[in-house]
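Quick check before the chapter quiz. The format below is the same one you will see on the exam, so make sure you can read both the input and the output lines.
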Amino acid sequence: MNKYLEEILPTGYIYKCYSKTDDKVYYGSCKNLDKRKSAHNKNSNRCMSAYIVGEKIFETIELHRNISRGDLKKRERFFLDNHSDPEYFIINKTTPLQTDKEYQTKKYKLKGKELKLKQKVYYYKNHEKEKERLKKYYHSRKGELWFCADCNKSMAWYSKSAHLKTCSHLSNITTNSTTTTTSNC
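Here is the expected output.
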């Protein structure tokens, strides 16, 4: 464990921040709740609690004396993992003490969904413009040829991706190379 997590705090708070007019909840931990509340309420707040609409209500869940930061983070993690209020959903961006694997799984799962949603929105807003752009690109390269040195063939540029996956191309690569590779053909 690192020195930051080993530091003993005279007081430690686990709190949640929510609003009666919104369906979002933020869980946090700190050593000075008044200071943390004012940070959450500032206009320059870069925390996820900034997305809570309406007057923020801060509720102290636990108060600890002489607790290490690591233990305080474990308690915060406990409340994040065991949140069961159906009226509110958690908006915390990070999870305390998460492993690298948990972080990567969460990051890519969310990023993938987020990216798909952004692509759909972009598509609906710019469908005609995008269609026209692709049409221009296709027509600008229409007469271009691509040459495969392994197969000694030339073909249209748009056939390159499909050609590289063909059995004839893969067998030419294996016969031309000194090392043998297995192929499904």
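If your answer matched, good. The longest strand covers residues 57-68.
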